[in-house]
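Hey,

Quick one before I head out. I ran the complex with oxa(dethia)-CoA overnight. Inputs first:
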Amino acid sequence: MDKIFPIFANETNRKTMYNSKIIGLGYYVPDNIVTNADLIKVMDTTDEWIQERTGIQERRWVIEGSGDTSATMGAKAARIAIEKAGLTTKDIDFLIFATLSPDYYFPGCGVMVQDLLEMNTIGALDIRNQCSGFVYGISVADQFIKTGMYKNILVIGAEYHSGGLELNDRGRNVSVIFGDGAGAAVLSRTEEKGKGILSTHLHSEGAHAKELIVEGPNITHWVDDIMKENNPDDVSYYPFMNGQFVFKHAVVRFSEAIIEGLQANGLQSTDIDMLIPHQANLRISQFVQHKFRLTDDKVHNNIQKFGNTTAASIPIALTEALEEGKIKEGDLVVLAAFGSGFTWGSVIIRW
Ligand code: UT7
C-alpha cells in the first residue's frame, strides 16, 4: 500500500491540466424504417404535416423482441467508437450513459454496458438530461480528463422511444417526432494545446420541467396505482410536450449556448466549420443556421431519416458528419442541445 499511495497522489495532484479529445465515434440504429406513410395507418396525420412541421421523412424504431434496448444499442455504438479509437474495452476507465428511456427504472444503463462490453469494474455514471444528455456527458468527461483522473472515457447517448409512445390521434404531436438509436464517443487525454474540447457550457431552467415530461409512473403515482385505477384517460406514462412553448424556448437557448461558447473562446460565428445541433426539429436547426448565417455545408442535419433520437442525436450526427468527410483536422466544431428540463448547453471543439 505504501508504494501505491505516492503514485496515486502524484497522478491526481498534477498541476498540469490535460485536454480531452474525441478519438473515436460510432452509432447504431435499428434496421426497421418507419415512414410517415406507416404512421398514417395508426393516427390522423399526413406526410405533408410531418415534413412541413418537423422535416422528418422516416425514423428507425426497434422491432419488439429484437433484443434492442437503450443499453444494448448503446453497447453496439460503443463497440464501434472504441474500435475506431484504436482501443479495447479494457482501456476505458470510466463510462457515462445518457438516456431518458432506460431499460429499467433502476439501475441505470451504464452498468448494463459495463457488463455487456465485459469492461473492468470501472465507474459507470448515468445522466438524466434528455436531449442535452450527450452535451452534459461530454462536459463531465472533459472535466475528469482535464484533472488527470481518467484517460479514456466512453460517453453514450441512446434512446428506445418507440416502446413508450402513444400511437393514436391523441399522441400524434409527440409520437411522429421520436426515433430510436444510439451514438457513442471515446474521449481521451491529450497534451496538445488548443486541440480537442475547448469548453463546455451547461444550463437548466426547472420552472419549465412540466412542459416536456413523462410524469408517471413516479414514486407518488406508481405502477400499482395506475393499474388499479385502470383509467383510460391516464396518459401520465406517455410523453407530454407543449410543442410551441418548447419550440420558442429552444430557438433562444440554442442561440445563447452557441454565443456563450464562441465568446468564451474569443471566437465568432464565422469561425464555425461545423455545427451539430441536437436534432429536435429541422425548423429549429434552420432557424439557428440562419441566425448565425451558416451555409448548408456548415450544419449537419439527419432528422429527416432518423427523427429526434434525443440523447443519441448529436453523437449519431457527429459520427455521420465525420464519416462523410465534413469535418477535418483543425476544424471548429460546435455541438448544441436543448430539451426537457429545460436543459441546454454547448460544446466547442477544435478537431
Ligand atoms: O427535442 C427536445 C425538444 N423538442 C423540441 O424542441 C420540439 C419543439 N416543438 C416542435 O417541434 C413543434 O411544436 C411540434 C412539431 C411538436 C408541433 O408543431 P407545431 O407547428 O408547433 O404544431 P402545433 O402543436 O401548434 O399544432 C398545430 C396543429 C394543431 O391542430 P389545430 O389545433 O391547429 O387544428 C394540432 O392538433 O397541428 C395539429 N397536429 C397535427 N396534425 C397532423 C399536431 N400533431 C399533428 C400531427 N399530424 N402529427
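Residues 45, 49-50, 53-54, 131, 172-173, 176, 241, 243-244, 246-247, 250, 280-281, 284, 308, 339 surround oxa(dethia)-CoA (CB under 6 Å).

Talk tomorrow,
K.
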